[in-house]
Design a protein that fits this description.
The relative contact order is 0.07. This protein folds into three domains: 107 residues, no CATH class; 112 residues, no CATH class; 79 residues. The protein has a two-stranded antiparallel ribbon with strand order 1-2. The protein has 15 helices and two strands. It is mainly α and 375 residues long.
Length: 375
C-alpha cells in the first residue's frame, strides 16, 4: 500500500477473537504489571536500603556554636554520607514524587508519543500520612516510614508504566531501531541485508497508512529513503527509483520537515537523497544538476556536510575536480569532523590526488593532510 492511498472503506475488518485466560493463571498483561511492580520495588530497595534499615545511623542533630545553638546536620564518623543523598534523589525522582512531565528524547510529542502530560497518581496525591499513622503504633516509626515509601514507589511506578503503555507508539520505536540497524549494515557493506531489515519494519507500519499520524508517515518515509540508498549501493536502479518515489510521495503528503526519532524526514531530506542516490549509482552529472537545494533549514550540521560531500563526489564523477575540492572545503568549514574522519572522503581525496591538477594542488594537498591521506 502506498502512503498516498486513500483509507480503506466498505466492509469493516472482522473482529479478532479474544483469548480468555484459564482459571487460576494470570494473563500475560497481568504478569507484565506484576513485573513492573517488582522492578519498581527492587529499584526502591537498591536506592534506599541503607537508610531503610537504619535511617538514624547516618545523620544526627548537633548544636552549632558559631550560630548560637542553631541545629546543623553533621554526619557521624564512619557513616555513608551519600546514603541520605541517594534516598533524597530517589524520593524526588520521576518514580516517586516528581513524575509531573514524563518526557525524553524519544517519547515526546514530536518523536512518537502523545506528548508530556501530568501524571497525577504520585505519592503526593495519596494519603500516605494516614497509612503512616496507622502502622506506626503497631510496627514502629521506621517500618511505617519504609512501608509508606515502598507503597508510594510501587504505585507511582505502575502509574508511570500505564501512561507510557497508553501513549507510546511502540511500532514506531521498533521501526526507528530498524532504521538505525539498516544504516549499520550499509556501513558494513551489506546493503541487501539493510533493505530486508528496513522493509520488514516498513511492512509492520503499512496497515495504518490510511489514517497515519505525522510521526507514522515520517517513519514510513525514512525507512523508504534508507532502503533506497541501500538499493543504490547494491546497484539496483529500479528498486532505488521506486523506493525513492514512495518516499517522495510520502513527503508531499506530510508537507513539512520533521525529526521523529532523530530520523529527519520531509521534502528537504527527500531532495537531499535525490542527490545521494545518483552518486551511489555513478550518475554524477544528474546529482550535480539536482544539487541546488536549500539545506539551511536542516539543523544537523553533519547532515548538511554529508550532503555537500555527496555533491563533491558528483563533481568528481563528472571530472570537475576543482568544484569537487571547493565543495569539500565548504563541507569542512561546516562540520570538520564529518570530513576529517569520513572513510569515503579519504578514498575520494586519494582519487583526486591521483589525477591532481595544478589549479587545485595547494587546496587539495592541504585537505589531504587534514583528512590523514598525506603526512
Amino acid at each position: 500500500m502506498s502512503a498516498t492511498a486513500a483509507p480503506p472503506s466498505g466492509a469493516s475488518a472482522p473482529t479478532p477473537a479474544v483469548a480468555v485466560p484459564g482459571p487460576g493463571r494470570p494473563s500475560g498483561g497481568a504478569l507484565v504489571w506484576v513485573a513492573v511492580a517488582v522492578a519498581t520495588l527492587a529499584a526502591w530497595v537498591v536506592l534506599t536500603w541503607p537508610l531503610a534499615l537504619h535511617p538514624d545511623h547516618f545523620w544526627t542533630m548537633a548544636g552549632n556554636r558559631a550560630s548560637a545553638g542553631q541545629p546543623n546536620f553533621v554526619s557521624r564518623p564512619g557513616s555513608l554520607a551519600g546514603g541520605d543523598h541517594l534516598q533524597n534523589v530517589f524520593i524526588q525522582s520521576v518514580v516517586v514524587d516528581n513524575a509531573r512531565e514524563l518526557r525524553s528524547l524519544y517519547l515526546d510529542l514530536r518523536e512518537g508519543a502523545a506528548g508530556p502530560a501530568p501524571l497525577r497518581t504520585t505519592s503526593l496525591d495519596v494519603p500516605w500520612t494516614v497509612l503512616l499513622a496507622l502502622v506506626w503504633p503497631l510496627a514502629g516509626l521506621v517500618p511505617a516510614y519504609n512501608l509508606s515509601l515502598a507503597l508510594s514507589s510501587v504505585a507511582t511506578g505502575l502509574a508511570a508504566f500505564g501512561w507510557l503503555r497508553r501513549h507510546t507508539r511502540w511500532p514506531l520505536l521498533a521501526a526507528a531501531g530498524a532504521w538505525r540497524l539498516g544504516w549499520t549494515y550499509q556501513t558494513l557493506g551489506r546493503p541487501k541485508d539493510a533493505i530486508e531489515i528496513v522493509m520488514t519494519a516498513a511492512a509492520a507500519l503499512e496497515p495504518g497508512l490510511g489514517a497515519a499520524s505525522p510521526p507514522h508517515l515520517s517513519m514510513w518515509g525514512s525507512l523508504h529513503l534508507n532502503a533506497a540508498i541501500a538499493a543504490a549501493q547494491a546497484g539496483e536502479r529500479a528498486a532505488a527509483r521506486d523506493l525513492l518515489g514512495e518516499a517522495r510521495a510520502t513527503a508531499r503528503r506530510l508537507g513539512v520537515d520533521r525529526n521523529d526519532f532523530q530520523t529527519f524526514f520531509g521534502p528537504t531530506n527527500v531532495a537531499i537523497y535525490e542527490v545521494s542516490i545518483p552518486v551511489e549509482l555513478g550518475d554524477g552529472g544528474i546529482a550535480v544538476e539536482r544539487a541546488g537545494i536549500d539545506t539551511s533549514g536542516v539543523k544537523s550540521l553533519e547532515r548538511r556536510a554529508h550532503h555537500l560531500i555527496d555533491v563533491a563526489r558528483g563533481y568528481g564523477q563528472w571530472a570537475k575536480d576543482s568544484e569537487a575540492v571547493h565543495t569539500l572545503l565548504e563541507a569542512e568549514q561546516l562540520a570538520p569532523e564529518e570530513v576529517h574522519y569520513n572513510v569515503m572522503v579519504r578514498e575520494f581525496v586519494r582519487d583526486l590526488l591521483r589525477r591532481e591538477r595544478r589549479s587545485i594542488k595547494r587546496d587539495l594537498r592541504g585537505l589531504a593532510q587534514r583528512v590523514g591521506v598525506l603526512a
